[in-house]
Amino acid sequence: MGWLSAAEGDEFGCLGEDEPEPPVPAGLGDLTPSLRALAEFLSIDSDLVEAAAELSPPAPQVAPVEANLDAWIAGLPAAEKDALLCRVVRESPVVVQREMLRRLRAASCAAVATPSRPRRTVAELLAARDRLATEKRRQAAIEAAREEARRREQDERLRQWRLGQLAKRVPETWRQVGDLIEKRQGKYYDEAVSLLTGLRDLAEREESPEGTAERIAELRETYRRGATFFL
User: What is the pTM of this model?
Assistant: First the structure.
């Protein structure tokens, strides 16, 4: 994490573009909460961490200590076993136990083979970060376009359903428009405009807009003092 921070910001001027990255640790693609907090504290770009993790092998699954204990002890030289037994008697058994567990865990981790990986330069890693960020933006734009298309499709289906309902009560709707205008209040004007919009759209859908346009013109003339509220 410290190297990535220096590679990104180069605050101390210690890394050049051709500086090779250190061996990439296993498990970089699945950070622990503490490592994520460290990355945030160092203000490391998450895309840079993700780019670095492209060459990171999965974290080794270390078997429980008990699974390797018998084989590890069997492999110890006889003289070392004797020395450990003497220490258990002469010293604190807990101290010896902790030391043996540390050695066992270290031996288990060392037994996990880590494949050789190519080492990128600072410039290559930053370029990989930029490509990753660009691809994320592209994917986000595609998903946003798809979501917008889905939203428009849903809106259109709802609009068509409402027009279908309106088609069942066209005469009543025209009377309602007149009643609303007669009230001479802004909120009723807005409702009248909404109804007229629906009537206009219904007429366009049924390819008979002329009659609706004529009726709207008649309303304009009848209520010309309030004509500003019309479409």
Answer: 0.56
Measured distance CA(118)–CA(143) in Å, rounded: 34
Which value, to the nearest 10 degrees, does the dihedral of the CA atoms of residues 130, 131, 136, 142 take? 130
Helix (H) or strand (E) holding 64: none
Q: How many CB atoms lie within 10 A of CB 90?
A: 8
Buried b (16+ CB within 10 A) or exposed e, 119-138: ebbbebbbebbeebbeeeee
Sign of CA dihedral 140, 142, 147, 152: positive
pLDDT in tens, 106-124: 776 655 545 566 789 999 9
Cα 88 to chain centroid distance, Å, stands at 54
